[in-house]
Amino acid sequence: xxxxxxxxxxxxxxxxxxxxxxxxxxxxxxxxxxxxxxxxxxxxxxxxxxxxxxxxxxxxxxxxxxxxxxxxxxxxxxxxxxxxxxxxxxxxxxxxxxxxxxxxxxxxxxxxxxxxxxxxxxxxxxxxxxxxxxxxxxxxxxxxxxxxxxxxxxxxxxxxxxxxxxxxxxxxxxxxxxxxxxxxxxxxxxxxxxxxxxxxxxxxxxxxxxxxxxxxxxxxxxxxxxxxxxxxxxxxxxxxxxxxxxxxxxxxxxxx
Length: 256
Prior knowledge:
Elements: E1 11-17, E2 21-27, E3 35-36, E4 50-51, H1 63-76, E5 82-86, H2 97-111, E6 116-121, H3 129-134, E7 140-144, H4 150-157, H5 165-172, E8 179-183, E9 185-186, H6 194-207, E10 211-215, E11 227-228, H7 231-244, E12 248-251
Parallel strand pairs: 2-5, 3-4, 5-6, 6-7, 7-8, 8-10, 10-12
Antiparallel strand pairs: 1-2, 9-11
């Protein structure tokens, strides 16, 4: 199956999101290639072309360009429930992420105060104090955790060499009002085996999130051998999270 096309601009959508309702996307990454600190086996944008934990500034759109595009859009439309930092890779890699988060909140407050400001992040930079402080600008900081052990992280998320699970889990445990997003996939590369899931549940308990969002691979991916976990299994996992982690948990899927 072919992966989805990359976003071709700074602002995209609004798109209908399973988790965020009608979401206006903000892409802080390049428009012609995927830039991320992970190379997840299930990513619907395909393989990561530039994998780095701290890319040089030349990869990113400028602050003025991002804010001008966002303000122009907010002046013209209100048909969305969330403004979501996501896009063609990992948004927190932008060297001016903290400034962009603060200014985006200011624009949201001015033009669309009813909308929530959301972030979809892979958690690889959450150990950095500047990133954790910037997360306070978001109503919905949604951070990834697909693994509870380093081997599964390496197999499923294929992070840059400098990214470690202990740093991620420790940092996530310090973020208040946190929502964790977890993708569970089957197949020989997946993270759906019982022992792997037990370690994932233990990591979630250490973090203590407010909410856990569980979903699987419902879109085309570039990797072979990535299999969708069926909705009933996702629902069972959500119940295990509610029982073991004492957090809210919801399962999401696309009807096929």
